Amino acid sequence: MPDARHTRHTSKAPTRARSLAAGEHIDAHRHDDHQIVYAGSGVLAVTTDAGTWFAPANRALWVPAGAVHAHRATGHIDLHLVGLPADDNPLGLSTPTVLAVGPLLRELIVAYTRTPDDDSPERHRLLAVLRDQLRASPQQPLHLPTPTDPRLTAVCALLHADPADPRTLAALGAVTGASERTLSRLFRGEFGMTFPQWRTQSRLYHALRMLAEGAPVTTVAHRCGWSSTSAFIEVFRRSFGHTPGTHNRLAP
User: Fold this and answer.
1) Which segments of the chain have a pLDDT < 70?
2) Domains in the chain, please, with CATH?
3) Residue 130 near residue 105, CB atoms below 8 Å
4) Residue 156 in contact with residue 147, Cβ under 8 Å?
5) Angle separating helix axes 150-161 and 169-176, nearest 10 degrees
6) Closest CA to 135 of 33, 36, 251, 252
7) H helix count then E strand count, the chain
8) Cα 115 from Cα 137, distance rounded (Å)
9) Cα–Cα nearest to 29, from 62, 53, 61, 5
């Protein structure tokens, strides 16, 4: 998670396009402005002290003004950043959020970040349409919260280390010194989701990263713990609206 002691402060959130190499990090920092972060390829993870939000090529991340956050790239990323003043919050959101990006919003973000120094009336109108499209974009629950209870932290660490670990919550509790009932309560209380819901989110996060690194769909399904490739494809399609086999072809 970001370390507030070493946070870099940038007064304005930049509007620009840039590339991130596979595995590249942007260390903890914050802006006085809001920021829309869109990765046209690869998978981008944004981490705060509250957790990690992850976005493939058909999602964008809303990062509110003042939020200390770090970026991590998986696969090559074509990054597009749109800054908005702190008093311009078209979404009314005060926490990081993942948003769906349809074809029109994608093209608006790409076009707006292509000429960051342009102050023409045409570009102002482009931003107005972009803001309208943001408000219409569905929010997506692609978030892995940061645990605070040490027992929950231990369970999450085991499953992040091996997403295919098939152990039940009771079996994991026996290893980490907590009862199934206690862990179930902690998942609901700290994360607002059940253990199976969290495990699916975690496996999808790891699956996205493996796909961005070029791993075959069958390999990803196996390494992330799905019982079959077809089961993985169905969960992935329900979550992202397309199959994992077409995922890396979504970039514009």
Assistant:
1) 1-11, 248-252
2) 4-143 (2.60.120.810), 147-249 (1.10.10.60)
3) yes
4) yes
5) 120
6) 36
7) 8, 12
8) 24
9) 5
Backbone angles phi, psi at 96, to 5 degrees: -55, 145
Q: State whether the Cα torsion 126-132-136-141 is positive or negative.
A: positive
Go through the chain and tell me how many residues it has: 252
Helix (H/G/I), strand (E/B), else coil: 16: strand
Dihedral sign (CA 212, 141, 62, 51): negative
Closest by CA position to 66, among listed 100, 101, 93, 106: 93
Query: Could you tell me how far CA 180 lies from the centroid of its own chain?
Result: 29
How many whole angstroms separate alpha carbon 179 and alpha carbon 218?
Answer: 34
Q: What b/e sequence results for 213-233 when a residue is b if at least 16 CB atoms lie within 10 Å of its CB, and e otherwise?
A: eebebeebbbbbbbeebeebb
What is the chain's mean pLDDT, rounded?
89
- Decide if 90 contacts 131 (C-beta within 8 A): yes
The CA-to-CA distance between both ends of the chain, in Å, stands at: 31
Q: Give yes or no for a contact between 149 and 190, defined as CB atoms under 8 angstroms apart.
A: yes
Determine the pLDDT at residue 4: 47
Task: Answer for the pair 182, 173: CB distance below 8 angstroms, yes or no.
Answer: yes
The pLDDT assigned to 5 comes to: 47
Give the per-residue pLDDT at 9: 59
- Beta strand residue intervals within the chain, DSSP E: 8-10, 16-20, 25-31, 34-39, 43-48, 51-55, 59-63, 69-74, 77-84, 97-100, 139-140, 143-145
User: Sign of dihedral through CA atoms 132, 243, 111, 38?
Assistant: positive
